Amino acid sequence: RWVMMGLIGFSVGIVGFLLHQLIDLISDTKWFYATQYLQDSLAIAWVFAVGYSLIFLIPAAAIVVWLRPSAGGSGIPELIGFLNGTIIRHIFNIRTMVVKFISCVFAVGSGMPVGPEGPMIHLGGLIGAGLSQFKSDSFGIRPTYFQRFRNSEDRRNFISAGAAAGVSSAFGAPVGGLLFSMEEVSSFWNMKLSWQTFFCCMISTFTTDLFNSAFNGFTYTGSFGLFATETNIMFQVDTDLATNILAFIPSAILGCIGGILGALFTFLNVKIARLRRRLLSKIKSQQNQKVVRFLEPCIIMILTATVSVLLPAGFTCTNAPRTEPDVERYVCPVGLSFIDGNKTLNNQSYNEAATLLFVTGEQAIKHLFSNGTHRQFQVGVLITVLVIYYVLACWAAGTSISSGLVVPMLFIGALYGRIVGQLMVTWFGIHPPETDPYYAWMDPGAMALIGAASFFGGVSRLTMSLTVIMVEITNDISFLLPMMSTIMISKWVGDYFTHPLYHSLLEFKCIPFLDSEPVVLNLELYCAGDAMTKNTVVVHPVEKVGRLCKLLLSTTHGGFPVIKDTSQGPVLCGLITRLELCMLLQHNEIFVDSPDGSTAGQALHYQTVGKETYKRIENIFKHETEREQYLDLSPYYNQSCVSLPETFSLHRTYIIFRTLGLRHLPVVDDHNHVVGIITRKDLMGFKLEETLHTKLTENSSDV
């Protein structure tokens, strides 16, 4: 397992290196030529920016819409749902991985207001699932050497480690990746898995940093093995400022703002997704629906490119002191430069809006995080960019491209954090650390860092992992305590209004997710029989093939209790899943002509029954004689399935179901007769509330 963890970490690191190098190559080329054309004509620069962006965005959206819709979005909600115990189609498929990678590279590189970190987490999970199982139903590959890992527990653990390695590679944050997987992604965790995941994250980060040290845009830099901070630290903060107890006041304010704006972002994201689904449902043609889904990100891309190129023209050039050397000139005068000793001085002006929009998202965040640049941005520019980017990022989050939200979240938070910092500078003045270290913490860059953490926390509601990630991506430990306080406050405020974004998307996508504790209180007052689904469909150990086929075609149940007739009536003896029945019905060699016929020596191997692909049930039976034959289920059904009496505590039923990762839980009476079944959907919060409310209404009417 340790070797497999190392292989997963190395593979994820390679994929992360390729992903970022390709994105940087595409985006740097775009802005380089756009800057050149801008000196000739604003219209030419706009045409180039829009056309160049669409060249990459069109295939990014097309392959998701027409080839693999499951590769759209970040993939994190689906990953969380799967690790919680829900089976979701095509999320761990080689085709999904290829489409996810290409779509993410093209979408982020083209300049969409999205980031690559979410897809990188999904890609890490894909690599963890693929390498550990080392099989592909798409290509018919299934070597026996990796058979020892082909069980649900090992697969789940390797996927969790792969997701953590994806975070580590994307952010250069190995400890943050471990904590992210433990806090947000995984539903089942243990100490042994912690050590193995830590090793996987270490290998992933080391691999990505090693190759990034040697290549820049696939050009060899000659510094192989030199782990420079400007290369390996995502948003390196160069100036260390001493924090102050007074810094907790703006940190608390930013935490409240982050919680409110984060909750609003989640609310708008879900509302836009529901509106999108409602409008698509009115289009009868499925092909026309795909065309609309394809055109939506193209429209957002045109708007984003237009804003990036044309909006800075609405702001005048400025020549403020205390600015960075790499601000964007746009169309401002070049100015004059001269050397004074060891310093190079110039009077070149720059465009504040272009410094935030005419660059990549990561470069804009670096500008916002810069310390000692008190006059670099004015409040009006920051507010304008904040409103426009907030709307575009919220709209783009649910479109049919592979995309994440980490970069937009950091950008939005840094914008309003910088606004608070600029207001503090206006009210209280500039306090350089050289002359006034006590108040030097009132720096707009420091407030931007705290604001980014607050909005990230307000959207995701992460705490431990987010704190560590923010420290690792900025290399700034001095503002650790203010960041911790603003993250906690943003979580509290955000939780008051909405669920976290990923959990809201779980509900929107109808993925049944069970929290570690039930969300409905006082479940100890109810029994398992109050929440179960009655009139359960059951099967016998030996069933007629025609009845099994009819059951699969007429129901959508995922599992069926198996009962055996005894002198005391039909008693529970096991459970068989829908997938297993579908597999068995494809093998007519195990059918018998009579219910007493034996299939000894003909039983299928577990690996055959456990395959995840099968034909449509309607096409299995071509002859009526097969429907009259029988199938002996005895070698295949689960004879050790968990069952509970109907009088068992509902709260403890929930804990057992969630802790064991069950999908079906038969409920029996005192004589072991099946009286109902509990599935994941029966234990969802909304379903429990409806069921128990109905139960209370019935009891009150009886009284």
TrEMBL record:
Chain ranges passing through the membrane: 7-23, 43-67, 158-181, 247-270, 291-315, 377-398, 405-428, 448-471
Pfam family for this entry, one: Voltage_CLC
Keywords per UniProt: CBS domain, Chloride, Ion transport, Membrane, Repeat, Transmembrane, Transmembrane helix, Transport
Give the matching InterPro entries. CBS_dom, CBS_dom_sf, Cl-channel/antiporter, Cl-channel_core, ClC
Where is it mostly found?
A: membrane
- Cross-referenced CDD domains: CBS_pair_voltage-gated_CLC_euk_bac (cd04591)
Any single Gene Ontology cellular-component annotation: membrane
Which residues does the UniProt record annotate as the domain CBS?
Answer: 532-594, 637-696
One term of GO molecular function: chloride channel activity
Record membrane topology: Multi-pass membrane protein
What SMART domains does this protein map onto? Answer: CBS
Keyword Ligase attributed:
no
Q: Where in the cell is it found?
A: Membrane
* Family, per entry: Belongs to the chloride channel (TC 2.A.49) family.
Q: In its UniProt entry, what is this protein called?
A: Chloride channel protein
Specify the species.
Answer: Ciona intestinalis
